Amino acid sequence: MPQQVTLLLALLAMQAWSIRYEYVDVSKNLSYFLMSMEFAIFQYNEDNVDEYAYKLLRVRRSQRKKLTWIYLMDLEMGRTICKKHEEDIENCPLQEGLEEKKVRCSFLVDAFPIYTQFTLLNSTCVDK
């Protein structure tokens, strides 16, 4: 068992090292990054069982995998008073008090910009 734990830790360290050097920072305003981010937030809202929509509060990381259109993003989002399928969620106020919820998510999105096609490769979210 200790050998398995050691092997797992070594693999995680190698993955963390490779991610550090495979990804480069990109502008948060880069058009393909923005489209990928909008897709990730939309997909989060679609997959979430909560009836209320979440919107972007802060971009903590914006990166692109070298030689690809794969974007890695770390986002903070807040729960709004609007339902998922309402329009203009970006201008919807956040919930306050006991209903207030915030999440921090990492998304990995593969963009195929020529056809405006996006694929969510991975997502991990934790409540804040």
Automatic annotation (TrEMBL):
<keyword id="KW-1015">Disulfide bond</keyword>
<keyword id="KW-0646">Protease inhibitor</keyword>
<dbReference type="InterPro" id="IPR046350">
    <property type="entry name" value="Cystatin_sf"/>
</dbReference>
<keyword id="KW-0789">Thiol protease inhibitor</keyword>
<dbReference type="InterPro" id="IPR000010">
    <property type="entry name" value="Cystatin_dom"/>
</dbReference>
<dbReference type="Pfam" id="PF00031">
    <property type="entry name" value="Cystatin"/>
</dbReference>
<keyword id="KW-0732">Signal</keyword>
<dbReference type="InterPro" id="IPR052333">
    <property type="entry name" value="Cystatin_spermatogenesis"/>
</dbReference>
<dbReference type="GO" id="GO:0005576">
    <property type="term" value="C:extracellular region"/>
</dbReference>
<protein>
    <submittedName>
        <fullName>Probable cystatin-16</fullName>
    </submittedName>
</protein>
<feature type="signal peptide">
    <location>
        <begin position="1"/>
        <end position="18"/>
    </location>
</feature>
<comment type="similarity">
    <text>Belongs to the cystatin family.</text>
</comment>
<dbReference type="GO" id="GO:0004869">
    <property type="term" value="F:cysteine-type endopeptidase inhibitor activity"/>
</dbReference>
<keyword id="KW-0964">Secreted</keyword>
<feature type="domain" description="Cystatin">
    <location>
        <begin position="19"/>
        <end position="126"/>
    </location>
</feature>
